[in-house]
Each structure stands twice: as C-alpha cells, then as structure tokens.
C-alpha cells in the first residue's frame, strides 16, 4: 500500500481578484505547519494563476505547493479568441480541473466535451483532475452509480475521440474528484460512507486503483472523517479533498490540511 499522503486541492473559483489571490496564497503558505505532509494544489482564477504560481515558487518553494487551472480550452493552440489552451499552462500549472459541475451546469459542458478537455490536458503533459457528481441527495449508491459511471464513460469516450485512451489518462496521473452537486456550497457534505462507496464504484468502472478525492462543503471536521483510513477497505479509500469555500480563508484551509494529514 502506498504511503498515505493526502492530496488537498483548493478551488478558489471566481471569488477573488488576482491581487487578493496572491495575498491569500501567501497567508496559506505561512499558516501551514512545517511538518504537514499533504500534497497541496491551489487552483486560482486564470488571471491569478501566473502570479500565485510565481509567489509560491519564489517565496515558499520548500512547501512544494503546486497550482492547477480551474479549466482549460477544448481547442488547440491557434486562432481561438479568448481561449486558454492546455498547452499554454505548461510551466505554470501542474494540474487542470475539468468537468466541474458549475461548468457543466452554467456552461452546458457535456461529458464528451469534458473528455476532449481531459485529452488536451494529457496531451499537454499535465495532470487532469476530473470532477464527477450526481444531483441525487439521499440516494443510495445503487441509484448513484449508473449516473456517475455514465459521466465517466462519456468523458473517456470524449478523450478517445482525440486519441487518448484510458491507459494514457491513467499514466498522466488522472485523479477523479467526486463532488455531489447537492453538497457543493450547501454546507451539507456527503457522508464519508457515501463518498467511499462512490470511490469504490468509480474505481471499478474505470478498472484502476486511481486516486479519488471528495469535494463538497468540506471543513476541518469533515476532512478527518473522509480521510480516516480505518475502517475503509482499500478500494473505498479517499485520497484527498477538493475544497471550495473553506479554502478562501487561510486559517480554515490550514486546519483542513492539518486534519487531513492527521487522519
Ligand atoms: P465547496 O466547493 O467546498 O464550497 O462546497 C467545492 C467545489 O465546488 O469544488
């Protein structure tokens, strides 16, 4: 079994202008205890990505915090006004979030489009973080599973359209984040048991022991329950968290990281 090093992703969405993102990144870096073991990834807005990345490299390099883009274009480099191709993130972001439910809902992103973006991320040599999530609060895993599995199948088919197969996605370090739509920003997270069942379902559908994160109203208390290793079976484990609202406060986010690494 691999050493337990949780992956904690801060998704700042469109909450802050770039200057405030840089200040927040600095506060987070100085709030973290020196002995924390998590892999931390910060996803600022596209406008703040370069400045946040350079601050972390210049002033806090020993912490090893990397950055992610919150999205990327489905287009290649070229004449696509306003687009931000994955290839242009190389050297800046290490990872790219694709398929967040806010983009699926607000921008009408389909599974196939999300899959083509996954392919662009992998072809650029970056790590994709694929978000999937159901709108089935109170459902059991039997009801959720077909929905989540079809999101995965649609995305992997979209990636295949651009010549990227599942083994290539896995080799690129594919991470899947289970983010139930009803839990995002609602203050009511899924239970650890629900999230673990989903983690198992996704691993079975994908056919690989890949990292699975949970996201949706995570706080410090939830962080330890999601990441507690016992009594979850290996295939039900959660490898980390995707944190939205609670990552906008440095002290709160640092306490989530601490809880996660002690779980
Ligand atoms: P939340 O957002 O933590 O504010 O619920 C999570 C997400 O959307 O990534």
Topology of this protein?
Elements (H helix, E strand, L loop, with lengths): L6 E5 L6 H14 L7 E5 L5 H11 L6 E4 L25 E4 L2 H7 L3 H13 L3 E6 L8 H21 L4 H6 L3 E4 L13 H15 L5 E4 L4 H8 L12 E4 L6 H13 L1
Parallel strand pairs: 1-2, 1-8, 2-3, 3-4, 4-5, 5-6, 6-7, 7-8
Helix pairs in contact: 1-2, 1-9, 4-5, 5-7, 7-8, 8-9
Helix/sheet category: alpha/beta
List the uncertain runs.
Answer: none
Strand content: 5-15%
End-to-end C-alpha gap: 16 Å
- General form: globular
Q: What kind of sheet is the major sheet?
A: 8 strands, parallel, barrel
Helix content: 40-55%
Bound compounds: 2-phosphoglycolic acid
Alpha carbon gyration radius: 17 Å
Write the element-wise H/E pattern from the N-terminal end onward.
EHEHEEHHEHHEHEHEH
Mean pLDDT: 95
What is the tally of helical segments?
Answer: 9
What's the total count of β strands? 8
Spatial order of the strands forming the largest sheet = 1-2-3-4-5-6-7-8
